[in-house]
Amino acid sequence: MRVKSGTIEQKVQKLRELEARATAKQRAEYQSRFDVSWIHHDCAIEGVVYAPTELDAALHESVASDSPLAPAHDEIRQFQAGINLIRRLSEDRKAAISLDTIKSIYYTLAPDEEDQKGPPVYRKDMPVQRAYFHDIETPDKIAARLRTLLQWLSSEDAKRTMHTTRIATKAHYEFLHIYPFAKHNGKVARLLMNLMLMRAGFPPAILHSTDRHRYYEALKTSYDAVASLTNEALENGVDSAARYWRRLLGIEEESAD
After folding, report:
1. Spatial distance between the Cα atoms of 121 and 111, rounded to a whole number of angstroms
2. pLDDT, tens digit, for every residue of 67-99?
3. Alpha-carbon span 191 to 160, nearest angstrom
4. Predicted model pTM
5. How far does Cα 77 stand from its chain's mean position?
6. CA-CA-CA-CA torsion for 19, 24, 28, 34, nearest 10 degrees?
7. CA gap 20, 7 in Å, rounded
8. Which domains, from first to last, does the chain contain?
9. pLDDT digits over 97-150, tens only?
10. Alpha helices by DSSP H, the chain
């Protein structure tokens, strides 16, 4: 299918053409570096900043379970496992987003809470101390509102009337306003959004740590505000990746259409 000039789809198409010219080793090295950056920025969005040396040590070195470094290493490795999970799930582009999808993402981030039987355990209170300060659903309405979100995601109306990037962003926004779990809601919401983007052929949209305040304010403001920030992150990521591959492959920068 022909894509319109200047659209995000055209930019992604050109990015894929550049990636195809790289060797398997170059692509693997890029993915490794990309994942470290992804983990850094997503953790920073949550208010936890890891230095590159900390990330590298967590991903490539072992520490004893009683080490003071163990909790941080576990968090980093669990998020890497979450990235690996959505990459695998994204390969089936026709699969519906279901409660099992959300369970698998959440339990990858919180393996100590895993229970394969029934729905995941939702939060039972209205937490005062939390990273996010937008309005969230009351515990008694979490299950019903999550079902409504999943039904909407599988509806033909949503697929027919909204662009994939907006559907993915709305899922992210609504999930964070439902706030179903006691922890990891932001991480689950962003991994869910990126799973949907990747299934549609887009790269993940990584919200930059410097946009943390804008992101929190957008969540308190409106879905459109979050959509604008996410689309900006997606486009910036595509442009940055394209520049990386052009430099590596010795290709001159293209002039604007």
Report:
1. 13
2. 888 999 999 999 999 999 999 999 999 899 999
3. 23
4. 0.93
5. 15
6. -10
7. 20
8. 8-115+124-249 (1.10.3290.10)
9. 999 999 999 999 999 887 666 778 899 999 877 888 899 999 999 999 999 999
10. 8-21, 24-45, 52-60, 70-90, 99-109, 142-153, 156-161, 164-178, 185-199, 212-221, 223-249
